[in-house]
């Protein structure tokens, strides 16, 4: 089953700046490469910070005359960054990074928690190998419905769960999976739903599956009996 990682969607050819890269040079990098941020790396290609459009705008605000209302919005630390002329003085640091083997869910959680728009990707030695953005994380949802349906039908239902080919009918419309049909055991239903929901490109799962045998009720009854007459208990005659 397909579970994409950061490595699958990240940009590998990363435009970077160095500590001494000047403001205008960074602005030029943004313009020429149609980007909104650059990682700042040291001489070993380790990311040490990020300069974004917001940092350049902060610099522009800092060029206004002293006492301007915009400057009063800035924290003292932001004042210092606004006065910066090179990347090291303007960048956001330390930088939050990702690993190439992270799942897209892991990367998304870090971005959401830290309120970030992008993450530099590093290798085992801490060297920059790529960058992943919010838009990159949406790539799995560009999968076409036919490939999602094929994966559910063959990889999930047939190869993994060994269900009869005609047990579950699958339709996919704009990433929304609909499951109908009848399975042998009730306990299979949440398993099928969970496996489908975890696939790349699946937006939601809607199921109206029936079952022939309620094994969840039997299991509960057996557990109850097991508590009364356990394996080490001696039944009364």
Description:
The protein is α/β, with parallel strands linked by helices and 237 residues long. The chain is 40% helix and 22% strand. The strands form three sheets. It has a three-stranded mixed β-sheet. A three-stranded mixed β-sheet has the order 4-5-6. It has a three-stranded mixed β-sheet with strand order 7-8-9. Mean pLDDT is 86; it is low at 228-237.
Write the layout of secondary structure elements.
Layout: H1 6-9, E1 17-18, H2 23-33, E2 37-41, E3 47-52, H3 53-62, H4 69-72, H5 76-82, H6 87-90, E4 98-99, H7 104-114, E5 118-122, E6 128-133, H8 134-137, H9 145-160, E7 168-173, E8 176-185, H10 188-197, E9 204-213, H11 215-228
Parallel strand pairs: 1-2, 4-5, 8-9
Antiparallel strand pairs: 2-3, 5-6, 7-8
